[in-house]
C-alpha cells in the first residue's frame, strides 16, 4: 500500500484521527491533499510509528520532532543516532531518579504505617 488515508493510519496504530491531525498541526506529519482528503505516504507512516514509539519511552513531541528532523541517510544517520543515544541516557537517568524517589516514598509509607499500627495497639 503506497498511500494511506487518515482512517487507515488511525486503525493501524490504534490512535484517533484527531491525534493524527494534531501531529500534523505540530509539523510532524505532512500529508498530501486531494481536496479535503489527506493522503499519507509510507514516510508519514514511519514518522507516526516513530512518534508513538518515542512517546512510549517518555520522549516529548519536541524530542520526537528533533530526532525525526535529524534523519539523514546520506550521513548514515550519525547525528540522529548520537542524539538518540544521548536522549536515551537522559531518560534512563530520569527514570533512575524517579525509582529512587518512589523507593524513598515507600519507606516513608512503611514508617507511617508502623506508627499507625503502634498507636492503635496503644489504644487497645
UniProtKB/TrEMBL annotation:
Coiled coil feature spans: 85-122
Highest taxon of source: Bacteria
Annotated GO MF terms: DNA binding; DNA-binding transcription factor activity
Residue stretches making up the HTH merR-type domain: 3-70
SMART domains listed in its UniProt record: HTH_MERR
InterPro entries named in the record: DNA-bd_dom_put_sf (IPR009061), MerR-type_HTH_dom (IPR000551), MerR_fam (IPR047057)
UniProt KW keywords: Coiled coil, DNA-binding
Claim: DNA-binding is one of the keywords in the record: yes
Record flagged with keyword Transferase: no
CDD domains assigned to the protein according to its UniProt record, in alphabetical order: HTH_GnyR
Name this polypeptide is given: DNA-binding transcriptional regulator, MerR family
Amino acid at each position: 500500500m503506497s498511500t494511506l488515508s487518515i482512517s487507515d493510519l488511525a486503525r493501524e496504530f490504534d490512535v484517533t484521527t484527531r491525534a493524527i491531525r494534531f501531529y500534523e498541526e505540530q509539523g510532524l506529519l505532512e500529508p498530501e491533499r486531494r481536496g479535503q482528503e489527506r493522503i499519507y505516504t509510507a514516510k508519514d507512516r514511519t514518522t507516526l510509528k516513530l512518534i508513538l514509539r518515542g512517546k512510549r519511552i517518555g520522549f516529548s513531541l519536541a524530542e520526537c520532532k528533533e530526532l525525526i528532523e535529524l534523519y539523514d541517510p546520506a550521513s548514515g544517520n550519525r547525528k540522529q543516532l548520537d542524539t538518540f543515544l544521548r536522549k536515551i541516557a537522559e531518560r534512563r537517568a530520569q527514570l533512575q531518579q524517579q525509582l529512587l524517589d518512589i523507593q524513598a516514598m515507600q519507606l516513608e509509607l512503611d514508617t507511617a504505617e508502623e506508627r499507625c499500627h503502634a498507636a492503635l495497639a496503644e489504644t487497645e
